[in-house]
Specification:
31% strand, alpha+beta, four-stranded antiparallel beta sheet, 2 domains, single chain, disordered N terminus, Methylamine Dehydrogenase, Chain H
Length: 565
């Protein structure tokens, strides 16, 4: 575990030790989690009572006297009567008590307010209730959100137990079930925190079984007229999405294979003008990038028309077109767990959008050449690769960026492994492994992809000399991917194979596993979160141009199953 025995969950400090450090077991850790939460709640409730009394004492004197009029009357009727002329006091009391200093009404009122019987404060007017709501502090809000999240987690665990309740014995001890439920809640909280921080990694590479012979994947979705440029998978691994240069955008069910096509509006919708753009962007529907949100509700696409298009995955209807880029949109990525969308473009900028509010947020500058790939995880960070031979890690809250250099040719693809580690592929056929500690790659696999027969080169079309700088087009690593929170990675080029890699030595080295047969240029890769299969988008041409062509290839998406022990 980490050096600190506590962790932050909605900014409420609770123990981070859940039976894995050797000092406690699962049930004791769960009891500790709940006990600390209860103590925190009691302290916060006491603070609220004190604040309510302070507000009550701050009321005008007239309102307090009106509310305490009856008590004043009782106090007056209870005063002692004395016999004039220094006589003896009534009720057989000591005579010295008649010479006590009289107590002022204001002091009595203060004491009565201070030693209140603890009854809840009821606002005397709507304005007072609104003021109390506005006085909620940031800590109170965090506590309220944490309590609500804990209640939802408990309810989800209880719902899961209800499905198995019939199979359990009727005489099962209630206390044991309650303790098991609390342990499950603590485990879920710790698992989510570790996954978000990137400190947990599933060991899938050691479980991968190599096939006896190279077998091509199963075609899924629909056949495209031109090269497939982008693929993605929903978080639950149930739906796949693909786009191509011919503007065809499709989704299909992974299990049944039933595919559906997205229909473009009859008259292409005018893009949003939130970023100051006043021109209606119309033109090619050539698509270069797609991305889906974590909840599976939205699908984003971008291409040569310089706009980011938002679609509803349930109805497959076009919702919005964001304008603002001055070049083709080449890469897209949703921040996990949110509706924030990042878009990279040939105009050398990255823009941040809010899909919920359909609005533009910010623009990131720094690349000196075209941006061709980006990726993001849960944190407010985005990784981008550009034709300026640099990788850049953007830290949004800090408004800063880290620049990484190491490839001898232009970069074509990049992806996160964790928040501080990432993978890249370039035109020189290399796959590089990086982390935030060094500005150079910690490991480079040179010549990761070799040449393939049947490829027709068209280097005369490359006015910028890209082929000469990066070598044969079939060696260009056009796609890299990492299975979420695992040590299994993949890369693809035009040499006829998708290479699987194992991340070893605490993500400091790469080891080749085996290849998956494929025909054509691999322009996009996407792992299932379970690690059971891999989607490869292929085409007769590379994604970003027509530097070479393989007429024997198919413009399709292929599903490659991965056998695990």
């Amino acid at each position: 575990m980490g050096t600190s025995p506590f962790r932050l969950c909605f900014r409420v400090w609770i123990p981070n030790c859940v039976g894995h450090c050797g000092h406690c077991d699962g049930e004791e850790a769960a009891d500790s989690v709940l006990e600390d939460l209860v103590n925190e709640i009691v302290r916060e409730e006491r603070k609220r009572e004190i604040m309510a009394k302070v507000r009550k004492r701050g009321q005008p004197r007239s309102s307090r006297q009106a509310s305490n009029g009856s008590s004043k009357k009782k106090r007056k009727t209870g005063e002692k009567e004395y016999v004039g002329g220094g006589g003896r006091a009534k009720n057989n009391k000591d005579a010295s008590s008649s010479f006590k200093k009289p107590v002022r009404d204001e002091e009595l009122l203060s004491e009565e307010d201070e030693f209140d019987n603890g009854a809840p404060d009821i606002p005397s007017s709507p304005d007072e209730g609104e003021d109390a709501a506005e006085l909620e502090t940031a800590d109170e809000k965090r506590l309220r959100l944490a309590k609500a999240y804990l209640d939802r987690t408990r309810q989800s665990v209880a719902d899961a137990e209800e499905d198995e309740e019939e199979e359990k014995e009727e005489d099962q001890d209630v206390e044991q079930r309650r303790g098991a439920r609390d342990s499950m809640v603590a485990d879920l909280l710790q698992q989510e925190q570790l996954e978000e921080s990137g400190r947990i990694q599933r060991k899938l590479a050691a479980r991968v079984l190599a096939p006896a012979t190279l077998q091509e994947g199963r075609p899924v979705g629909r056949k495209h007229r031109q090269a497939v440029t982008a693929v993605c998978i929903s978080e639950d691994d149930s739906t796949g999405f693909a786009a191509s240069k011919d503007g065809l955008l499709v989704q299909w069910n992974i299990e049944t294979g039933l595919s559906e096509k997205y229909e473009w509006p009859s008259s292409q919708q005018e893009p949003s003008k939130t970023n100051g753009s006043k021109k209606k962007q119309q033109g090619s529907r050539h698509i270069l990038a797609v991305a889906t949100s974590s909840d599976g509700r939205y699908l984003a696409s971008g291409g040569l028309d310089r706009s980011v298009h938002i679609w509803d995955t349930r109805t497959r209807q076009h919702l919005q077109a964001f304008a603002g880029h001055r070049g083709a949109v080449t890469s897209l990525g949703f921040r996990k767990g949110t509706q924030q969308l990042f878009s990279g473009s040939l105009d050398r900028t990255i823009k941040l959008w809010s899909v919920d509010t359909r609005s533009y947020i910010d623009t990131l500058y720094g690349h000196q050449s075209e941006i061709v790939s980006l990726d993001c995880l849960r944190q407010e960070r985005v990784l981008s690769a550009g034709r300026d031979r640099t990788l850049r890690l953007w830290k949004i809250p800090e408004e800063s960026q880290l620049v990484f250099r190491g490839h001898a040719a232009h970069m074509e693809s990049c992806c996160f492994i964790s928040n501080g580690e990432f993978l890249s592929g370039s035109d020189d056929g290399c796959v590089a492994l990086w982390n935030t500690i060094r500005k150079k790659p910690v490991s480079i696999m040179r010549n990761a992809h070799g040449s393939s027969s049947g490829v027709q080169h068209h280097t005369t079309e490359n006015a910028n000399g890209l082929a000469a700088a990066g070598g044969a087009a079939e060696c260009w690593v056009g796609a890299v991917a990492v299975c979420s929170s695992s040590d299994l990675a993949a890369s693809g080029a035009g040499d006829g194979t998708v290479q699987l890699w194992a991340l070893e030595d605490a993500n400091r080295s790469l080891r080749a596993l085996h290849g998956l047969a494929v025909k054509g240029f691999v322009n996009s890769l996407a792992f299932a979160n379970s690690g059971r299969f891999l989607l490869a988008g292929t085409g007769q041409e590379p994604r970003m141009g027509r530097w070479a062509r393989n007429p024997d290839a198919e413009n399709r998406v292929f599903l490659h199953p991965i056998s695990l022990r």
